[in-house]
Design a protein that fits this description.
The chain contains 5 helices and 3 strands, in the order ααβααββα. By secondary structure, it is mostly helical. The protein is globular.
Length: 150
Amino acid sequence: MSSSNIADKLAQLQLSGAQWQILAAIYGSQLRQGNGEWQNQPCLMSFSGLKGATDVSPRHVARAVKDLLGRNILRRIPSGNTNLPNLFYFNSDYSTWVISKGTKPTPQVPSTASVPPLAETELTPQPLEPAPEPQAERIQAEFAIVYLSG
């Protein structure tokens, strides 16, 4: 699958802002695992990690991930342990995506070559960049500085 074909299919997707943010966070995590080169490897990502990476509320993160999984744009490998996060990865086989909610993907034989077995993947958490300071707290801090100095 060429990256230009994937980009063309991404442009056809009808996603919410939260869904795009989740997709970008997971895709970016996969890029960081490959030192800037695309690696179709699952990335260790929890809902709280996605919330921190996107500043999207936990409820919207859960809803966005559920929809992206249902549309086969993201895939999930359950950790099997409730204390560990799931592995999520971007499904680069766009022929299996559900582009709009009312359509179904073209059935294809799943390829096992695109995702390595779990035992072969390195399960090291990738550092997330700190979430930006919430706007309301920043404004309150600036107001306090101006008020106290003025």
